[in-house]
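> forwarded from #structure-qc
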């Protein structure tokens, strides 16, 4: 049997280290469990983020009936073009006998040049529009040129605008109403050097009428329409028609799948991201080297074998692969699932299906929305689109966190409990080790003291024996 007196300091340290290792073993096991649980929480966090993005993208297809995307096309864009809003009713609109709204335009007789001075002294131009509006433009003696008159008129920014047209033979002052429509017809009375620019339909003077102010006129599906401009924004609700030339054309308003197609594409992208996140966290990677001792050496995802995670992936895939409504399937509208479990979306197929039966496509999208919304709500609770509030027995309303939130909360509670155990166990172990060190120290000190006493007594014993022998 080994006694304290036979142990050296290195042997004592070794025995204390062995005790310390034995006491540390359960702490290490608990720390390993905490690391594993934290990795699992992180994995669920990644999946939760992807599911949250999917839930947000579902908002784009939540109310399919309100996504009334429309397109408008004209058979003759040289006569009219058209744009539409989602409120326009689908249909065909025949525009016949189109004549454009025009401005009034008059021009003066030839004068020397735009910079040549006008004789007759300072004066003014008094404009009277057919709509009753009057305007006065005064021109001082320092600005009595065609260019100066045009600049003064344009500076006023009223119902008439001016320009100077120069030719080899001379220059002319051109006056034009600022807007189209018969109500924009005008007369002008000049004074001083500007008297020569006076004009009225009854007394045109030297001014020449180049174009009469007129309204746009046409028949819209046989109904006469008059407009002071060439833009028809109220003839058909939600349809804006721009007249660009005379003649006939047909404008067709039809349903357009562009907006809904984009929303479905966004859902498909988010769905793939969620599936990819789940696959990464549940993957199994076999040992990379032939020397690996067992499957435990594989670098697998933290959620490998987790039923909740794999079931969530299956539910998401089945929502697409098994979707069918009104006689069409997800595949018919361009939503397909590959053998690798990836969702793809073909906008061309979607547009083709929508053109054939828009209501059936809308019904199918609504079905897919409801299924995915239920899944996301179940997974992440309040991040989904559906209502996730529950009422307790006390009548208060609480917000559901979903399956993922429940799992991570339970794991966090476990981590907190283990951390407390580690703290308590470490404290107890430290106390036990300190006591053990003290006991070893006392025993060694006692052993050393006994050895000293024995050596001291042996001196007297040896002396006594020597005396007796003498």
């Amino acid at each position: 049997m080994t006694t304290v007196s036979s142990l050296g300091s290195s042997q004592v340290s070794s025995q204390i280290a062995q005790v310390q290792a034995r006491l540390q073993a359960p702490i290490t096991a608990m720390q390993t469990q905490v690391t594993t649980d934290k990795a699992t929480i992180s994995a669920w966090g990644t999946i939760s983020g992807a599911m949250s993005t999917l839930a947000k993208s579902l908002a784009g297809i939540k109310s399919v009936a309100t996504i009334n995307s429309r397109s408008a096309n004209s058979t003759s864009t040289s006569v009219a073009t058209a744009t539409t809003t989602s409120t326009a009713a689908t249909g065909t609109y025949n525009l016949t006998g189109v004549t454009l709204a025009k401005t009034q335009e008059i021009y003066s007789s030839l004068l020397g040049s735009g910079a040549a001075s006008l004789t007759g002294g300072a004066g003014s131009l008094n404009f009277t529009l057919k709509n009753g509006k009057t305007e006065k433009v005064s021109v001082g003696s320092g600005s009595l040129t065609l260019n100066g008159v045009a600049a003064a008129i344009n500076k006023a920014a009223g119902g008439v605008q001016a320009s100077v047209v120069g030719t080899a033979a001379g220059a002319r002052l051109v006056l034009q109403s600022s807007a189209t429509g018969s109500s924009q017809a005008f007369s002008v009375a000049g004074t001083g050097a500007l008297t020569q620019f006076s004009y009225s339909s009854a007394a045109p003077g030297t001014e020449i009428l180049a174009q009469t102010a007129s309204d746009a006129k046409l028949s819209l599906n046989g109904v006469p329409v008059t407009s002071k401009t060439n833009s028809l924004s109220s003839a058909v609700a939600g349809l804006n028609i721009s007249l660009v030339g005379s003649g006939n054309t047909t404008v067709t308003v039809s349903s357009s799948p562009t907006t809904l197609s984009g929303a479905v594409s966004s859902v498909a992208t988010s769905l793939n991201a969620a599936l990819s996140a789940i696959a990464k966290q549940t993957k199994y990677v076999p040992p990379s080297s032939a020397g690996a001792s067992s499957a435990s050496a594989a670098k697998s995802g933290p959620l490998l074998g987790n039923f909740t995670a794999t079931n969530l992936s299956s539910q998401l895939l089945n929502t697409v692969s098994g979707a069918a409504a009104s006689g069409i399937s997800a595949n018919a509208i361009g939503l397909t699932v590959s053998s690798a479990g990836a969702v793809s979306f073909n906008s061309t197929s979607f547009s083709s299906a929508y053109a054939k039966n828009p209501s059936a496509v809308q019904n199918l999208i609504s079905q897919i929305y409801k299924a995915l919304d239920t899944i996301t709500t179940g997974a992440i609770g309040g991040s989904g689109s559906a209502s996730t509030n529950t009422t307790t027995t006390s009548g208060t309303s609480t917000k559901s966190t979903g399956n993922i939130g429940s799992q991570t909360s339970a794991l966090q509670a476990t981590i907190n409990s283990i951390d407390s155990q580690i703290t308590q166990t470490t404290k107890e172990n430290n106390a036990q080790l300190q006591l053990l060190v003290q006991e070893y120290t006392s025993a060694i000190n006692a052993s050393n003291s006994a050895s000293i006493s024995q050596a001291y007594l042996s001196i007297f014993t040896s002396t006594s024996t020597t005396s007796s022998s003498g």
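QC bot note: Helices lie at 9-58, 146-156, 258-282, 307-321, 347-356, 358-380, 402-469. The first helix runs from residue 9 to 58.
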